[in-house]
Design goal:
Shape: globular
Strand order of the largest sheet: 2-1-3
Structural class: mainly alpha
Number of domains: 1
Order of helices and strands: HEHHEHHHEHHHHH
Oligomer: single chain
Helix content: over 70%
Distance between the termini: 58 Å
Number of strands: 3
Length: about 325
């Protein structure tokens, strides 16, 4: 805290939010609280199903459960405060609160990016090396991929936040968004930030773009491999693969737009931030549940067990 107080003349940032109309903000309050409740329920449902249903004890669902955990954490970094801010006329966040928010947004965002790559590796082995799947995707490999996701998330956020924490902020202190994000906050620093801007573009924007392109190439290879087999044997894999591709597009699309060109002001940026941090964690459980017959069956079994336990006198 001494570092920030020494270099900065301001102690808080003002968040402009999505609208200045009280009526519209009330509508946003109801919408966001429903979305957040659905995020918690949907992602917890996937995690509980994977843990307690032995039919889902496989590498793919292990990674899916961890993706749900990352989604839950990512949305929880800022959403509760965003919801409460809709009821406030003046939306503020402390300087340290802003730094903590940005740290964990990029920590869980970087971790989820790595986990999506791990899920692509799992599908590639399952489709292109099916005879070696159990040998390659063993417990040790899954643990390594999960630890790597956490490590990448930590390195990703630390490499940027280490330079951001020491920036001097002398005013203005208005952030045109619903929560703090690196490009918006860095622009408010009263010092030269060109090198840090390049770091953000490389670390967040360029990295997201490269990972997205590599993922699309890998999925294209998998699709070609599936089309070479009969439809009866590949329809299940194709359905699962389409869910993965949809989630990857929803996650990386807004992130690339926000961070690949982060220091050009676009009015759509704040809405893409909402999509990236709230809508995507809301949609992921829906996509995986609707596009995966095994997950739908597991949810149904869990529901029947719950109802059955309550009906026993």
């Amino acid at each position: 805290m001494d570092i920030l107080n020494k270099n900065s003349n301001i102690s808080e940032f003002i968040l402009l939010g999505l609208s200045s109309s009280q009526e519209i903000q009330l509508c946003f309050f109801v919408t966001f609280i429903l979305l957040y409740a659905a995020i918690i329920a949907g992602n917890l449902l996937i995690m509980i199903s994977v843990v307690f249903d032995h039919h889902l004890h496989s590498p793919m669902y292990f990674l899916l459960a961890n993706l749900s955990f990352f989604d839950l954490c990512l949305s929880s970094v800022a959403t509760p405060k965003v919801i409460s801010d809709f009821l406030r006329k003046h939306k503020t966040i402390s300087l340290w609160g802003c730094m903590v928010q940005m740290f964990f947004m990029h920590f869980f965002g970087g971790g989820e990016m790595s986990l999506l790559i791990a899920m692509a590796i799992d599908r590639y082995v399952a489709i292109c090396r099916p005879l070696h799947y159990k040998t390659i995707m063993n417990h040790r490999m899954l643990t390594l991929l999960l630890l790597l996701s956490w490590a990448v998330g930590l390195i990703h956020t630390t490499s940027q936040m280490a330079f951001t924490v020491g920036l001097p902020f002398c005013g203005p202190n208005v952030v045109d968004s619903i929560f703090c994000d690196l490009p918006l906050v860095i622009k408010l620093a009263c010092t030269e930030t060109y090198n840090l801007e390049l770091l953000v573009i490389a670390d967040s924007g360029l990295l997201s773009l490269v990972c997205f392109i590599l993922l699309l190439i890998s999925y294209a290879i998998m699709l070609v491999n599936l089309w070479q087999h009969s439809f009866s044997t590949s329809s299940k894999a194709l359905s699962t693969l389409s869910a993965h591709i949809t989630v990857v597009i929803f996650f990386f699309g807004p992130a690339i737009f926000i961070y690949a060109f982060p220091f050009n002001s676009y009015s759509v940026d704040k809405f893409l931030s909402v999509f990236y941090s709230i809508i995507t964690p809301f949609l992921n459980p829906i996509i995986y549940t609707l596009r995966n017959q095994e997950m739908k069956a597991a949810v149904e079994r869990l529901r029947n067990q719950h109802i059955g336990s309550w009906s026993v006198p």
